[in-house]
Specification:
Elements (H helix, E strand, L loop, with lengths): L1 H20 L9 E5 L2 E5 L1 H5 L3 H9 L7 E3 L6 H13 L10 H10 L11 H11 L5 H10 L6 H4 L2 H18 L8 H6 L4 H13 L4 H15 L1 H5 L15 H15 L10 H13 L4 H13 L6 H8 L11 H20 L10 H17 L7 H8 L11 H13 L5 H8 L9 H8 L6 H17 L3 H6 L1 H37 L2 H15 L10 H10 L34
Parallel strand pairs: 1-3
Antiparallel strand pairs: 1-2
Helix pairs in contact: 4-5, 5-6, 7-9, 9-11, 15-16, 15-17, 16-18, 17-19, 19-21, 23-24
Amino acid sequence: MASSVKGNSRLSIAMERTGQWIFSQEIPSDVMVEVGEANFSLHKFMLVAKSNHIRKLVLESTEPDLTRINLSDIPGGPETFEKAAKFCYGVNFEITVQNVAALRCAAEYLEMTDKYCDNNLTGRTEDFLTQVALSSLSGAIVVLKSCEELLPIAEDLKIVHRCVDVATSKASIEASFPSRTPTNWWTEELAILDVEFFGRFITAMKLRGAKSLIVASAIITYAEKWLRDLVRDHSGTGANSAVSNDSALRIRQRELLEAIVSLLPSEKAALPINFLCCLLRSATFVKASSACKTELEKRISVILEHVTVDDLLVLSFTYDGERLFDLESVRKIISGFVEKEKSGAVFNAGDFREVCSAAMVRVGKTVDAYLGEIATCVDLSISKFNGIANLVPKGARKVDDDLYRAVDIYLKAHPNLDEIEREKVCSVMDALKLSYEARVHASQNKRLPVQIVLHALYYDQLKLRSGVDENEMMQDAVTTRSQVQQDVSLARENESLRTELLRMKMYISDLQKSGPAAKGSLGAATTSSGKGGGGPRKGTFFSSVSKKLGKLNPFKQGSKDDTSNIMDEGVDITKPRRRRFSIS
């Protein structure tokens, strides 16, 4: 019912408008032209005089007297046909930048060319396009916008190509030599275009060699206009979770976002990182393609040194800020930046584990501060927390104070963790790299595992005993850890030697119990070995044991009790001395 009322309304309006310049004629109309839902009562001889297409329809009609003509497929619809009919009747009307493309396409459809009739509609619209509409950047953009509903005929007539060519040429000049303020006024006007024509404009700008910053400026303005709720306002109004991912709105947002990402300039640093982070969160929200998300992650990773905590939080939380949204993208971004820094360190023949660039140090501080912000989330697992913290190389943190703060916040927000789980959380930081204030706090922090508290106390005691300055102690932290590892290795070697001493004691005891026969044979073996005066001297069993015992000496320069240099010449195996070998 509503559609019929609407159609009758349009019909009556069309008849009324037509009557204003037709019914005043004394000759009654003889043809009804149908254009969609509108009907126009006109005169065939007036239309045939200007339109070769209508003349063909009349001549080729099988009806003896053609009274109805259907032109519903005319470009521009009823409004454009009405202006074309006025032109046929010689009624004045205004050609504007808004309707010139439609009139040009309608003239082509009706074959209202200069070959058929001098000074016809085709020539009039072409003159206006060339002399007026395409003489300015604003006019070219408006005409290009009007062509969106005139495809494919506007494409065939090269109107789209001409508009894009003029617009890119004048936009390049305007970007280099602004004629008004603000200097990016033209990007606002460009944002009226559909994404397809906008993409053609951006592609043409790139082919002209436009600077990446100019292209980026146009893309940012366009994205903020068409994805305002997702990218600019961060209000989530257009991101209502109740909207299905398969809804028309979500599909439209997804297609638009993927198209915008595909238009980004090749220079990675041309776009600000906060804008890229907003795009990535929008891509995650609307479930854009993996290729789209990967491209954004790579671009953010390249310029991660400029990232702020707020930028990372934009990626992590939902639009209402109530729950964690996407930590996987953050992990990929940080990992990509670290790999890039590793490649640079290898190229420069540096040790990435010990020395990191200033950019890596800045990123490390930002990541630690970011961990402190997300640590309060109760649904943040230990594996995800540690996974992000461990991405930053140890050398990128001169002190672990910021990381300790994040760990403490996490432990406070998750009070039900057992001792083992708390140790896992604390494993990401190094207690020897805490500042004095942080160590004092850690030594009194009941949330920390006992092991971490002992490490902090041990380091303070070591500092007090050595009397070394705090900065020097921080520099010697690596040396201290290395010495501890050496002590552990020495303890293991000591244990193996203790086992060998036990075996030696049992061997001597068996010799003493074997009797004179064994002693004689052993003495004969000793005498025979000693007769080779000129040959190299072979070490006895006791000398080899003495050398192994010397390894237990912790002093590298030796001592008066070092047995490694004892000669075995005067040792009588048959009458061994009474010697007590300590195995303690």
